[in-house]
Amino acid sequence: MSSNYLSVILAWMKQQPSHMNWDLTFAMRPEQANDLVELAHYSRESSALGDIEGEIAVPGSGITHVLTGYRMGPPRLGDIEAAYSSPNVRQTIALEGGMHFIMDKADGLLGVAMHDLLDPLQVKQELALTANSQGVQADLKEGVETELDLGGGLPQRLAAGRFFKDFVSGLDIARRVYPLVDFQALAGNPSRNALGKCAITRPS
Asked: Which of 17, 110, 186, 189 is at a distance of 20 to 30 A from 94, taking alpha carbons?
């Protein structure tokens, strides 16, 4: 859909009866959401923890990547297109402040790198946003097609992505869930207790 103006959205909803049971539709630019998530992320004490570490074996080789001391940067939404039938978004996360060792079974240490704010490791994944009566949120544990780029091909990125998923799955809710929008009940609002579905769209 080329534009997300109110008239266009309403016309589309009229032509799509299966979506007429939405309780709320609102629009937000990805940049605004990213700024708010970044602010919320760095307000958490856990944002300074450098506790991402472990070993990642590259399938079909004798290579193992060893990560130590990485901390997770704020999740960022990207590649958002108007898709009213799906709440899925693409997401990136920077891993920074750690050291990366590349080990070979036969030859030992092959390389070492340090990653700071300007040169972090990048995680990419697809994530379905969820909504309830309290608002819209993103749970990092629900990411799919997760890739962590360690400089190799797709099998290596997926293996590293599984490592990251395992790490995120072990976090408590306070660290892995990011509220994006809070719904507040307003006096006289007949749907204040009936917010069940929500569409996040990008204004043109």
From this structure: 110
**Is the pTM higher than 0.85?**
no
Distance CA 82, CA 59 (A): 37
Neighbouring residues of 20: CB distance < 8 A, sequence distance ≥ 6: 13
Give the domain range for residue 155. Answer: 45-201
Angle in degrees, CA 153, 164, 86, rounded to 5: 85
Is 31 inside a domain boundary?
no
Structure token pair of residue 45: 């004490």
pLDDT tens by residue, 169-188: 998 888 888 877 776 665 55
Give me the amino acid identity at 186: L
Q: pLDDT, tens digit, for every residue of 48-102?
A: 888 899 999 988 888 999 999 999 988 888 766 555 566 778 889 999 999 999 9
CA 201 and chain centroid, separation: 17
Greatest CA span in the chain, whole angstroms?
71
**Does residue 2 lie in a domain region?**
no
Whether 67 is covered by a domain: the verdict is yes
